[in-house]
Design goal:
Elements: E1 2-3, H1 5-12, H2 22-30, E2 34-37, E3 43-47, E4 56-60, E5 66-72, H3 74-85
Parallel strand pairs: 1-5
Antiparallel strand pairs: 2-3, 3-4, 4-5
């Protein structure tokens, strides 16, 4: 899968996002637990990388060809827990 310049700079080269790799993001996109089209046309994929308690949100371009952003989404984790408890 391709990556945008934004992804390269703000995810792969960002020291605050250690543990997020291109391979992990590609796995989340391939086997997402939840997918949503954003108002801007991009797609968001959520999944839990092995060994992590948090969900990783991976944003891809509207044509689904390139990774654009990725971050651990604590809000989604809380939402999922509420859905399972309720």
């Amino acid at each position: 899968m391709e990556v945008t310049e934004y992804f390269r700079h703000n995810v792969l080269e960002n020291r605050e996002r250690t543990g997020i790799t291109q391979e992990t993001c590609e796995r989340i996109v391939e086997d997402a637990e939840y997918v949503e089209r954003q108002p801007n046309g991009r797609f968001a994929f959520w999944g839990r990388p092995s060994g992590k308690d948090l969900y990783l949100r991976v944003i891809v371009t509207g044509d689904r060809r390139a990774l654009h952003n990725a971050f651990f989404d604590t809000g989604f984790t809380r939402k999922r827990r509420r859905e399972h408890e309720g």
